[in-house]
Design brief:
Order of helices and strands of chain B: HHEEEEEEEEEEHHEEHHH
Distance between the termini of chain B: 32 Å
Number of helices of chain C: 17
Shape of chain B: elongated
Largest sheet of chain C: none
Oligomer: heterotrimer
Largest interface: B-C, 91 and 99 residues
Shape of chain C: globular
Largest sheet of chain B: 5 strands, mixed
Number of strands of chain B: 12
Radius of gyration of chain B: 27 Å
Chains: A mainly alpha (about 220), B alpha+beta (about 350), C mainly alpha (about 550)
Structural class of chain C: mainly alpha
Radius of gyration of chain C: 23 Å
Distance between the termini of chain C: 16 Å
């Protein structure tokens, strides 16, 4: 039903212009802007957690610092590195798509997915460790010393914030997986690769959230050791 | 259906008339602008009604001058509301120092009120005319709100903290007390009365009460019962801070911060003792959460307060003599309130 | 100019392929990506929720006919007002104008073929419906009794009703709002026809742009707040319950950070509708176009900074109270500017008393009262007395029913010829508008008085001296209910029996009136090029309008 006026039929087929857009540029602008707007939404979504964190840490900074000492700094640091590298591979994937190197694209997308799983795996180890040490809030929560209430709040926030972050990672891996399949089928060209571009934006955003979570959750008690 | 059909609430506190004056000012301004807009719309709609389908009215794009005028003038008027309203709000939040203290514990779905002399009431509060009364309120479960329309005061009663509201009644009578923060099934039944008595009637009412000693005395008994004094003592063997003269002072904490020793701080120190450790002490104190009720905590606070005020102006034991009270503001000689509600005999009876 | 203004006369012959006849069968509707069909899907669903919420309101008013709580049990009453609030706010008012009229007309007004993301648009509707089903499940299985505000710790600890499914329904529906807002923002930025500059946009589009900003910035905060409530209720993570170390007032901050701007989500689109109706039926350019446009954005931005005025008696610091009070007065100014500009637009106009214009008159009057009584609530000393009484109930119903629903009904009548291709019966419609106006005022004006007397909201029973005013209110509500059923009946009737509508029955200037009624699926046979200013009436328009 759409008449692709400004483009010839071959170009249209190649470039996957949707019927209601006038040009490829318009379509790309729309999807990029949409992802930015979505990320603003995401900032506000995490913002609720960050605000709650701020309020309760303000109420008992020492308790939070003590609770933070029960985090495994090595695993946290490794995970931070894993995520930063995954951002690099994602950026390389976007670059490969823009320059039309299909093999490199497939490789970088696969690497990104692997690193994503590595992050989740390490996170799972940490969660198991915390739960075994009765650090999951609730009736079985156990924390030695006077900081139990603050520690319980800290771990409520820890599980809430990292859980939400992990959910975003899982969704991200799902999307990158879909892109991998599409790339395998040769759906992307240098003219048309905005799905990879906007997914890249999303992936970097999820990494940046972690860059905030890491110091707030892992590092605030270091100076007390 | 009842015969009386009020359109305006009783005004029975010092704040009430101030709120009403501002309310009338707001009503006048709102009335003026509502009528202005309505008249303009109706007049334009009639005067400029479409007379022919080929009418083509002149093009008017707007006027900077008008836009400025109708932004700045309303802003100016709004600021006058703001300043006036803020003044009253500050007064509402600053209880006078010589206020009578009443402690309020709210729970689903009743009001428990305790006077300083130990008299307890449920869903009914007796207060003297012409004397400021300060309520320290907390909740055992969810958020409630203490509202007396005739006094124009309201304050949420939040679990886990103390909130304060005060009033000074100006008219004897019996006034509605409502819970205005939705609190569950019988929210609408969490209502009661505030009885404003002439000072002499109030004295009689207090004297006839079953008050088994002052709140502070009850707190002292509780203090002994839980052996608090084995640690909190004035000598060198004390493992806990000395409580004498503590109330209202600034305390240095082990984390370098300071805190004012008010009701909320004492409450927290009893129920969650390790949250704030006083400098020079170890976190040894066990929690009394579940061992001491909200009323018990209030009694302990009254006791600790009494350690700082040996001769309390706030009337821990007895009211000051009547002649020292501020002159009651009485608009007329009639008892006020609704006719069926001045019942001095019944007022001496106490609810359990 | 004149050539474009004379629309193709497709309305006299059976339409070639309007969006209504482009496909038949359930599948062609449920899998459609046409923004106009999705708008109609929304129209059907929000109409259902509106009458469901209205039924709850009717039962509430019947209970309040007598002071004793004698019609229903207290638990039932609490569930009634909770479900009334949840259904009306989240499932009717928030999606009403944006998802129906905005969805239908934003692409047409800017000269686009569709929204930027048609599939996302359809997905929004499905998300909305899934959220609605969760909430309906909660209703059918016994309801929820927390009040639509879900205040902690009552909602997280004390209530034993179906809090989780109801909250989940709102959580899910929130994503529908976010996606709709995102779609509108991107569409307005990237899809405007050649010549359609920002200051040629109809004010309806401006107000939806402002609304979308709130959708995108506010909704995630309520989502995360609900998530925290659910975590506390299910996993006992203590975010708000003081017994678990939380702070119940923090919940109120987070809740109102969204829910106050949500009020503007409800009323800004209605302001947009009025900004279309008034110039059309006054046949005159909007007075102070740029001021009205900027006022929408100013309301959206300032609206995010006033949430604390819901908490003047919560025990927050008096200085916070000062701050929020001052800003609340500031947000009133752009609203006042709009009212003055609409009134000035009528000056020296050629005013036609058609039904949409009657609703616009009603909107201006009732919104003025609603806005001015909002000043009472922003005034610290007075708010302490009227907070959580019927005064508040009356105030926000003047904004949401007197404002938003008046605007919605005005908009439905105004664009009905375009949406359905049929004219509604004018006489009956005028009568209905009159009934709604009278019924509304009789319902809610007495509540100002009973509120200042001190009657608290959410009361199942009340002292007998408040009865006379409550009886008036209930009487008004039954008139209002009748007024709402009338349009439902005659609009249905008109779909079959109404007169065919021309492409531009009102002689309006917007792009949506320069294409057949009902429009073809692609909206415009050729992409329009805009070379005129908004609401520009020229002599030729007259000819087109009459013809």
């Amino acid at each position: 039903m759409a008449e692709p006026k400004p483009l010839s039929r071959e170009e249209y087929a190649a470039s996957r212009l949707q019927h209601h857009f006038v040009s490829m540029a318009q379509q790309r602008d729309a999807s990029t802007l949409a992802m930015w707007v979505f990320l603003v939404t995401e900032i506000l979504f995490f913002g609720g957690f960050f605000l709650t964190y701020t309020v309760y840490r303000w109420q008992d900074p020492v308790g939070f610092a003590h609770a933070s000492q029960h985090m495994d700094i090595v695993l946290g640091t490794v995970n931070t590195a894993v995520l930063i590298i995954s951002s690099l591979t994602m950026a390389m994937a976007v670059h490969s798509a823009a320059t039309g190197r299909r093999k490199a694209l497939l490789g970088y997308l696969s690497l990104t997915i692997l690193l994503g799983f590595a992050f989740l795996g390490i996170k799972a180890v940490e969660y198991t460790d915390h739960i075994e040490h009765h650090l999951f809030p609730g009736p079985s929560f156990h924390f030695p010393g006077p900081d139990k209430p603050a520690a319980q709040m800290f771990f409520s926030l820890y599980f809430g914030m990292t859980g939400l972050h992990a959910l975003h990672m899982i969704i991200g891996i799902g999307i990158v997986g879909t892109l991998l399949v599409m790339a395998w089928r040769g759906r992307f060209t240098p003219e048309y690769h905005s799905p990879i571009e906007v997914t890249g934006l999303y992936w970097h955003f999820v990494d940046i959230v972690w860059i905030f979570l890491f110091p707030l959750l892992y590092l605030i008690g270091r100076h007390l050791k | 259906m009842r015969g009386d059909f009020p359109l305006f609430p009783d005004s029975a506190s010092t704040i009430a008339s101030q709120v009403d004056h501002l309310y009338f000012y707001l009503l006048a301004v709102s009335g003026f602008f509502s009528v202005l807009i309505a008249v303009l719309v109706i007049v334009f709609a009639i005067k400029f009604r479409r007379r022919s389908e080929t009418d083509l009215p002149p093009t008017i794009h707007g006027s900077m001058l008008l836009e400025v005028v109708w932004s700045v003038i309303p802003l100016g008027i709004a600021l006058s509301f703001f300043v006036w309203g803020a003044k009253i709000y500050f007064r509402m939040n600053r209880p006078p120092d010589d206020s009578l203290q009443v402690y309020v514990v709210a729970k689903q779905w009743m009001w428990k009120l305790q006077h300083a002399d130990g008299t307890r009431e449920i869903n009914e509060l007796h207060v003297p005319l012409g004397r400021p009364v300060e309520l320290k309120m907390t909740s055992e479960d969810v958020i409630h709100s203490f509202f007396v329309p005739a006094f124009r005061i309201k304050k949420d009663v939040v679990p886990g903290r103390y909130s304060t509201v005060w009033f000074q009644a100006t008219k004897p009578g019996r006034y509605h007390l409502f819970c205005t923060q939705y609190c569950g099934t019988n929210h609408a039944k969490m209502v009661g009365w505030v009885d404003v008595l002439e000072p002499i009637d109030y004295q009689n009412w207090l004297a006839g009460g079953g008050g088994s000693g002052s709140l502070a005395a009850a707190g002292a008994a509780l203090f002994q019962q839980h052996a608090c004094n084995s640690c909190h003592r004035p000598d060198s063997q004390a493992r806990g801070p000395n409580l004498e003269g503590l109330f209202g002072k600034t305390v240095n904490l082990s984390n370098g911060r300071t805190v004012v020793a008010d009701e909320s701080y004492i409450r927290e120190s009893i129920l969650n003792p390790t949250a704030k450790i006083v400098q020079g002490f170890q976190p040894l104190m066990p929690t009394y959460q579940g061992l001491i009720s909200e009323e018990g905590v209030l009694e302990l606070i009254a006791y600790i307060r009494s350690l700082s005020h040996p001769n309390p102006a706030a009337g821990t034991e007895m009211l000051p003599p009547t002649n020292r009270m501020p002159a009651p503001i009485r608009p007329g000689l009639e008892p006020g309130g609704r006719p069926d509600e001045s019942r001095p005999a019944e007022e001496r009876e106490r609810k359990p | 100019m004149s050539a474009e203004l004379t629309p193709p006369r497709l309305d006299e012959t059976p339409p070639r392929a309007s969006y209504l006849t482009a496909g038949y069968g359930v599948k062609s509707w449920l899998l459609t990506r046409d923004h106009k069909r999705i708008a109609l899907l929304y129209l059907a669903s929000i109409t259902f929720f509106f009458f469901l919420g209205g039924l709850f309101a009717l039962l509430i008013r019947l209970e309040l006919l007598t002071p004793e709580g004698d019609l229903v049990q207290p638990e039932t009453y609490n569930k009634l007002f909770t479900m009334h609030g949840i259904v009306m706010v989240f499932f009717f008012l928030i999606p009403s104008i944006p998802a129906v009229l905005g969805n239908f007309f934003i692409p047409m007004m800017i000269g686009a073929k569709d929204l930027a993301f048609p599939r996302l648009n359809l997905l929004s509707w499905y998300i909305y419906m899934i959220g609605g089903l969760f909430t309906l499940w909660a209703v059918v299985h016994g309801g929820v009794d927390t009040g639509w505000t879900f205040y902690a710790p009552f909602s997280t600890v004390s209530s034993s009703s179906h809090v989780i499914p109801a909250a989940l329904g709102i959580f899910i529906t929130g994503f529908s709002s976010i996606l709709t807002g995102l779609n509108f923002i991107v569409t307005i930025h990237t899809m405007r026809a050649p010549g359609m500059t920002w200051f040629r946009l109809p004010l309806f589009v401006w107000s939806h742009y402002a609304t979308s900003l709130i959708f995108v910035l506010g909704t995630p905060v309520i989502a995360v707040t609900i998530l925290l409530v659910a975590l506390e209720r299910v996993l006992h993570l203590g975010f708000f319950d003081p017994a678990l170390g939380g702070d119940p007032v923090l919940f109120q901050h987070l809740f109102w950070f969204y829910s106050h701007p949500a009020v503007y989500i409800m009323v800004l689109p209605a302001m947009g509708v009025v900004s279309e109706i008034v110039p059309t039926f006054a046949r005159k350019s909007v007075f102070g176009y740029r001021f009205v446009a900027y006022a929408s954005v100013a309301i959206a931005v300032l609206g995010f900074l006033v949430w604390g005025h819901h908490m003047f008696v919560s025990g927050q610091s008096v200085y916070a109270g000062l701050f929020f009070s001052l800003l609340s007065f500031c947000v009133a100014i752009p609203s006042a500017v709009k009212v003055f500009n609409w009134t000035a637009t009528m000056y020296k106009g050629s005013i036609s008393w058609r039904t949409p214009m009657l609703y616009a008159f009603g909107f201006v009057g009732l919104f003025t009262i609603g806005g001015l009584t909002g000043l009472f609530l922003a005034t610290l000393g007075v708010d302490v007395h009227v907070h959580d009484t019927y005064f508040i109930i009356a105030h926000f119903h003047y904004i949401m029913v007197g404002g938003a629903i008046m605007g919605y009904l005005g908009g439905i009548h105004y664009w009905w010829p375009k949406m359905s291709g049929k004219m509604y019966p004018e006489g009956l419609a005028k009568f209905a508008a009159f009934v709604v106006f009278v019924g509304f005022n009789l319902t809610f004006f007495p509540q100002f008085i009973v509120g200042y007397l001190g009657m608290p909201r959410r009361y199942h029973s009340y002292p007998p001296e408040f009865q006379v005013l409550n009886v008036m209110s209930t009487a008004g509500a039954s008139i209002l209910g009748f007024g709402y059923v009338l349009p439902l009946a005659y609009l249905f009737w008109s779909m079959r029996y109404g007169k065919d509508a021309s492409s531009n029955p009102w002689g309006a200037t917007g792009l949506e009136w320069r294409t057949p009624s009902p429009p073809p699926t692609e909206n415009f046979p050729v992409t329009p090029v805009v070379d005129w200013e908004p609401y520009e009436y020229r002599p030729k328009t007259e000819v087109a309008a009459v013809g």
